Known about the structure:
By secondary structure, chain A is mainly α. Chain A has helices spanning 2-8, 11-36, 44-60, 65-87, 94-116, 144-148, 152-170, 172-182, 184-189, 194-220, 232-242, 247-268, 271-274, 278-296. The mean pLDDT of chain A is 91. Chain B has a domain at 67-276. Chain B has helices spanning 11-35, 40-52, 55-80, 88-104, 110-139, 143-162, 197-215, 217-227, 229-234, 239-266, 277-287, 292-316, 322-342; strands at 2-5, 343-346. Chain B is globular and about 70 Å long. The model of chain B has no long low-confidence stretch (mean pLDDT 94). Chain C: GO terms for molecular function: ATP binding; ATP hydrolysis activity.
Amino acid sequence: MTDLLDIFLSASFWVALVRIASPLIFATMGELICERAGVLNLGIEGIMVFGAFAGWLTVYLGGGLWLGVGVAMLAGMAFGLLHGVLTVPFGLSQHVVGLGITLLATAAAYFAYRLALPEVTSPPKITPFAPWPIPGLAAIPLIGEGFFAQTPLTYAGFVVAGLTALVLFRTPLGLALRAAGENPAAVEAQGLSVTALRIGAVAVGSGLMAVGGAFLTLSAFSSFFFEMVNGRGWICIALVVFGGWKPGKAVLGALLFAAFDAGQIRLQQTALGATLPYQVFLMAPYLLSILALVVMSRRASVPAALMVPFNKGER
Amino acid sequence: MRLEPVANPGLLRRLGLPAAALVATVVTGSLLALSAGADPLATLGLIVTGAVGSKFAALETLNRATPLIFTGLAVAVAFRAKLWNIGAEAQLYAGALVTAVLGAHPIVTGVPGMALIGLAAALAGALVLLGPVLLKTRLGVDEVVTTLLLNFVLLLVVSMLLEGVLKDPMGMGWPKSAPVAKSVRLPRLIEGLRLHWGFGLALIAAGLVWLMQARMRLGYEIRAVGLNRAAARFAGVPVGAVLVKTALISGGLAALAGFSEVAGLKGTLTLDLSPGFGYTGVIVAMLAALHPGGVVVAALFVAGVFVGSDAMSRAAGVPSYIADLLLASALLYMVLAMQLVRYRVVWR
Amino acid sequence: MTRTGTAPDIVLRLDGITKRFGALTANDAVSLSLARGEVVALLGENGAGKTTLMNILFGHYTADAGTVEVMGQVLPPGTPRAAIAAGVGMVHQHFTLADNLSVLDNILLGTRPLWSFRLNRAAARARVRALAQDFGLKVAPEARTGALSVGERQRVEILKALYREAQVLILDEPTAVLTPQESEALFATLRRATARGLSVIFISHKLHEVMAAADRVVVLRHGKVVGEVATADTSPPALAAMMVGAEVALPRVAAGVPGPVLLRLDDVTTPDEGARPGLKQVSLNLRAGQITGLAGVSGNGQAALADLLSGLIVPTSGRLILSDAAPAEWSPRAALAAGIGRIPEDRHKTGTIADFTLTENAILETYPQLTRAGLLDHRTARRFTEELIADYDVRCPGPEARIRLLSGGNMQKLILGRVLEARPKIILANQPVRGLDIGAVAYVHSRLIAARDAGAAVLLISEDLDEIMGLSDVVQVISEGRLSPGFARGTMGAAELGQWMAGAGFDHAA
């Protein structure tokens, strides 16, 4: 018990928490935007892999860190565009296309990585984003360092979450997006294009997923290696459900999840942790995500037209 | 643009569009080879000869196809009912785990022993899928994410056991299980050829799945549930029970892939037993348009691409991940082609 | 944009509109004009091409030939935005509202440029309130749309059009979902609107409404305009003749001979499902040899009653009793085993499986009996289907064709055959003729009457009061999940039933 308390009261726990949550926040916002417009995007896992790779490669080849973020975003948007075109106007199964995109994007990243570095065994490092403490706030005891001495990309994640909420609920565009996910016929009846809205949402959402992936290479691990995304994309899909398709709650979910993850890493090093195989701790995030889905399944208000294809003028 | 259904697609449409998808895949492969600085024709040629160019290569392809037939069938059966089982990887490892445990010190030997172990393995895989399906039918939890997440969990369970109780003391420190006893190893299909009975079992499984889908009451129920759940429920089809039966069959088939790999090809369980056979099963099933016969053909094709790409990579230096890229694009081209068989695009 | 020489008081002119869907010509050179402040009714049977014509006018479809002019300006084809900008507002038969959004958000959707930064909800709310006041359309702007009654949702749809400053209002079958009293209120709103210079096209197949609300009637048949007449110069029988192309004689239905009670509901309550009310302490007797007609506005508990008799839901309290015994277990299969034949409300979503063949659809309820050792007996199934096709006059390419290729009427005949060939003792007919042409309607009705005469107890659920009053031996009204007493044939007029449908009678009883 005192072990647990020690963990929560250490500043490093809070730093790790926010760092773990950051990529999840980007990718969860991306998935949330897609699903709010009515498209389930199972491409998330692969798009994150490609984002991690594209961001890393840009910097490795001498580009700036922000350029890396931008390239990752654009690459993610390209995969999103492909997903959107196949699932929206062509009405293909969102499940199959999403998995196909995940396979495609993952394979593309690995192929290109091998092409760029045929001989390398240990992945080369880049200089990642440096922490950027906010004067004053970073000095708050316990959580100050965690929330206010992170890299700029982490701050950007929170800004993106805020913007997502703002756009979705306070602008005409957000209203149209949500309506496309609730009743596409209502959108079409107003002369707006459901196709354009949905493709746009999937493209932008996928861009954010890729930035989430790029966070891993540009702000967390400073190199690209295989299996580095390791199911984070699927966890983000669970987080969207857990957050009831609301940006604020989804961010809260990501932080909760990250708290658990940061906690379990530290718990492994305690006396209690040493008695259990490390795999038990590694399993916990996945089991926790399943549990979150089960708990929220009854209450969640799914967008009514999620996964419902819309064919204009169908009789 | 919008889509208009084609009432009776003609032969040209039904054969021409999938053929076009195949051509597009080949073109994609050529572009990838070019991007790697290799000659496209030579690269593709090396992939083909690497897959079927010699007796050794062809046998390698058949061996690689064996688990893919099982996982492809598993996915095809589930997707027919619109049960999105993306967890064939987990079910495969469950089957492999049971095979390794029971096979190391068999109580019953010979063919009965193999049959019992196979059944136990299938049961384990079925149970792994049963959880997500019950969560779906009872609580409405989406099975896509739960089955996906279970893939990671099962792999960690296997890892934990291989580093713990199942670790082979004779394994020189490698995390692998004690070898499956000779008495319950699947024999060779044909004497003198390096191809075990797992391939035969896979073909038999495909035949049985065909029988089930085309002739049996359960197949009819599965299609009804998959095509229109509300209408099936209204007409009295026991939707929940059908989904559970589908899950048991699907999970069992995926687990047989693990059984066949451990009891047939490898003789032991390691963490790298499956290079994603479960995920690739989705590609196989979709390329086959969920038909069991098609699954066999698609599995051979997919296995050929993998085996051929490995050989090509050694010879020409193009990264072997070209295989995954080719298959992912083949999948997308093919689902698009199949949609365009049923619908025509109308501009305005 | 070209100015043509249209007289200034003509707000809308359709000229030579033609639209084909494959082999079907939905609109054949249709021309129509509308003057300022005028109400024109577009009358025609289901499938006459009314909705297609309005979808072209509104830009949902593109015509193969012909032009649409609003205020003298030709609209570019195929863009609803242009139609909206020109002042055309449309209230679809199936409302285009998002249930999970508020009323205000539904009204606001698409009214501001997508890329502007503010929604300006406060100003919008004030304007919606003012419009609601002016036109007598009471509705709360912050309410969740899914929680509103059907009548309220229709008001939201009309407000949507008025908010966009529509000059021409198109209403597609607006009264199908309203009580007679609510319809009256709607017509009052329309009169207020026309007094302010709006023009209205309303689509209907109900003659008395057309006579009551319109200045002029345009009749469509098989996609062609077959008549155009001022309401003052015509009569319902004359309109009916134009609509169907021949004098129609409504079938005279002889009274049934009631037998014993075959199914009884005893104080049954079922749970509400979202905005759909459940049953509230409903008691009901269905007798052999009798058609019980259930009148009511859609969404008042009909779905719950139908689901209950179909075996899809169980009562939370009260009992369902079949021939003096309550069934031990209640499911669709138990309902079938108890001899209940069910014609579902939606033949596309619950009645059939579109990608199944006719044979596979025909055996959907009986396939367990066609199973030998786990294998389906396809030969028997096919023979059964061939007989069904012949006996019930199903026009189709054959028993192995996919049912999605069939017209609504032929699909319904197959469902009817599937139900009646099981010789049910009790028949639940939920909206059995909705969307069918007159020939198919007569056929389905005659089969139901024949089944009654053979001793079946029939429960007929319909929103069409004429159908209920024409066919039923006993009429009961459902309103907010409550059931009125039974009224014998001929003892109740439309006006009294309308009172019950609006919930008035229940308040007296309580």
